[in-house]
Amino acid sequence: MDSYRGVRTALIVGAGMAGLTAAIALARDGWQVEVAEAAPTRAAAGWGLCLTGPSLRALDELGLADTCLAEGYGMSTITHVYVDGEPAGETQLPRLIGAGRPAAAGIARPVLHRILYEEAERCGVVIRHQVTAAAVEQDQEGELVRVRLSDGTVRQVALLVGADGVKSSVRGLLGFETSLDYHGLMIWRALVPRPPWASGIHQFAGKADTAGIVPISDSQAYVFLTENGAERSALPDAELAPRMRRLLESFSGRVQEMRSLVSASESVVRRPMLTTFLEGGWNRGNGVVIGDAAHAPAPHMASGAALAIEDGLVLARELGRHGSVGAGLQAFVDRRTQRCRTLVETSVAIVGLEQAQQYREMYPLVDSCHRLMAEPV
Predict the structure, then answer these.
(1) How many CB atoms lie within 10 A of CB 356?
(2) What are the chain's domains?
(3) What percent of the chain has pLDDT over 90?
């Protein structure tokens, strides 16, 4: 049943940015797509993210960039400030979807998730919640992969895509092993009203940590903080806002205005910064892992979303160019490996410079990496 040359069937595990983008692109190319998502509802966690130029370029190819710009906040610069409050210059983000449109967009994560989710459903994608992959077996002919789901049902499909994040279970089911590296950084984000001056990304160097703000709509922004030298641990929700305010005390200038906004925020999250890069290929048989399951960079380049969205689009394009799933998957991995490796490694290098407070070396590296990411996929 269901061979690649007949009915093209795909099971995607994970309804995040990578999974939903892949689902949309595959469905538009004629695939029958089902998405299995472990979360109980379609609501996405998290407050906000940045869609850099490569993200918008890929979304524009899917016809979704203008919707994201309309519901997010368009911007084109990153303003850097040294520890002493001295301006450190601006990074002009590359405009990849036309000179008359913004270079990037801040957007609430639930808003982006809704846009992708609704488009996937319009394309005929079936999305099931509270279910994930429990076992994977490649058939002897190599045309199908058999997947047993956590609810006991079985799928036989031409393509299995693991888009289930940095702690991917599909990665292990396909037989891949990789380390998740913690770099002594806890990442904080707080949803706040957007100050009028925050018309782009602002990043402030501190004596120990780094803070900043990203607008995600005309009325909202999120404050971010990288807590250096932090033990990897969990805190009760009631302690999050007070702890974040204390960490922001050592900053001066506009960060104190941001700190006052955090004081009133009831939406604060704190997560460990984990990075990974899966060496030796991301595909096995008719299965592949994409997005954070294959390559998770540090957030300092704001480009994790770009890699995830690009992955979904490029995966569909390569499968469409080749006569077998195996050949399409290999072409996808060959096309994506070096770009994703470079971003992960550069993001980790930026983390090291930040921890050493070598900001004069860090900011040019950020600028050059954005230019590199602007190159064609």
Answers:
(1) 11
(2) 9-44+110-179+275-373 (3.50.50.60)
(3) 89
